[in-house]
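Bumping with the actual sequence this time:
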Amino acid sequence: MPAIVTENSIVHSTAAIRLAVSRGLRPAEELLAACTFPAAGQSLDLAVSGGPDSVALAVLANVAGVRGSIWHVDHGLRPTSGEEAAAVEEFATALGMPFHLVREEVPSGPNLEARARQLRRERIPAGAATGHTMDDQAETVLINLARGAGPRGLAAMRPGPTKPLLGIRRADTEAVCAALGLTPIRDPSNQSSDFLRNRVRHELLPLLGEITKRDPAPILARSAKVFREEDDLLDSEALGIDAGDVSALGAAPRPLRMRALRQAVSAISGYPPDRSSLERLDALILKGGRFRLQLSGRVEVQAVRGRIEYRRLDPPL
């Protein structure tokens, strides 16, 4: 039966946890300084699968003095998923954190992992923290680059309360578990070459390190930070453009115009439009004259007499 807390584990008080973590690869204070947890005493929902990263997330949140609540989603994808949920609940009890279990089966079909991930986002509270590390950040940069992403995609994940472990390594989360005598759950799908991220993790990043003779993860994470800062600056500049004024849009540099359009559409739909939709909209604006265009997210954009209107269409009856 899967188990996280063993009889050798000492997860029973913050002081004991801090002492044990300090015996790992790095002192507890150094690890926490690299994390972005909210202030001690604040509440934070934690998405915990039972793997080493999410187990370390809960442990470090405890050491940071955060009032954590553990959320676990059981998709029923493995025969042992029910036992894994019980193991996470036992772990939450050992930490003194409330436990919330969501059972949500994923229908069979293509893109199983992506659909499971989307269900987890929908079923746990918005703003729940995940255990993504610097290594995950490096993988995300490479994956987004391979998909042709611009600065926003290359900025990857943003550090903060929802991604508090982006400043530490996967080796650190493993060390935290080992120092506490915890046995995290190992998902066999993380070794499968059927998934792009796994191949980037197990093949591309090691090869990149071998070629460059350097550890690529911190370098890629630093690049993401640079892209994030530039992306924020361009967003700020784009906010100064009136996205309802055809003349103002036409006079703006194309990168800023595209961002202003993305911001306007996102404000209506709740999420950014795809690049091809923005390209069509941009071409119509530069052409001039009247037009009406429907975008994904049921957003309609209409130009009349030099003004552009954005509105959300009612869903079909």
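The tokens above came from a reply further down the thread. The chain has a mean pLDDT of 92.
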